[in-house]
Amino acid sequence: MQLFDLTGRVALVTGGNGGIGLGMGKGLAQAGATVVIAARNAAKAKTALAELAALGSKGGFVPVDVRNESSIQTMVDQTAKTHGRLDILINNAGTAIRKRPEEFALADWHEVIDTNLTSVFLCSRAAHPHMVKAGGGKIINIGSIMSLFAAPHATPYAASKGGVVQLSKVLATAWAKDNIQVNAVLPGWVETDLTAGAKAHIPGLNENVIRRTPAGRWATPADLAGTAVFLAAPASDFVTGTAVIVDGGYAASI
């Protein structure tokens, strides 16, 4: 179906060598996109690239530190130069530090905010001229259901993810004239390396998530693929400035 056809489109996914980023990247590859993954761990990226290549993607890997402005600019410019354009940006790179609010050092705060929120601004700003040149584009920012809820151990994480939602709205309103749609995705509890740490840190988390989630399970990265394709494809050309919850019904349940 042409509404979901991404043939000829070039996508850049930060943190794309695993977890949600790779799950979304696989969805885009299956829809015909060239998927470039950006991350710090090149060895992990090599495995991810093989999985994407098996789905037909002819993308590649670009090293990046999303806390560094010049590294981000190089990542975006290199992707556009190598592949001739940039149509889709998924701002997925993220981290978490779990402590109570009074235990956080300022350095902890900045590590999470810079990785989860400031990088979204910097990557989007760097991508903007390339998308304008291409005649439009799609930016998908990964928030969290922590954009909606709170937990004692998630001070900068929840703040950063709430900021992602508002930043997405601002960029959507600013760049609509450029035919660039900007949306956020709010995943629920997803089986990733990041949430494996949460399971180990928070007693009873696994059982509580399964109990509250009507779908009766944690998500897998593959559960985010369809949402990514929709928000990256022509099917969503009039969808911008919104946040799509993908959580198996967690937010609708009590």
What keywords describe this structure?
254 residues; alpha/beta; Rossmann fold; seven-stranded parallel beta sheet; 7 strands; 14% strand
Description of the structure:
- The structure is a single chain.
- By secondary structure, the chain is an alpha/beta fold.
- It has a single domain, classed as NAD(P)-binding Rossmann-like Domain (Rossmann fold).
- Strands 3-2-1-4-5-6-7 form a seven-stranded parallel sheet, sandwiched between helices.
- Strand 5, helix 5 and strand 6 form a beta-alpha-beta unit.
- The longest helix is centred in the middle third of the chain and has 29 residues.
- The protein is globular.
* Cα separation of the termini: 38 Å
Q: How large is the count of helical segments?
A: 8
Second CATH tier, the architecture: 3-Layer(aba) Sandwich
Strand content: 5-15%
Largest sheet: 7 strands, parallel
Write the H/E string, N to C: EHEHEHEHEHEHHHE
Taking pLDDT < 50 over at least 5 consecutive residues as the criterion, the unreliable ranges are: none
Strand arrangement, largest sheet? 3-2-1-4-5-6-7
CATH superfamily: NAD(P)-binding Rossmann-like Domain
Name the structural class: alpha/beta
The backbone outline, from C-alpha atoms, is globular
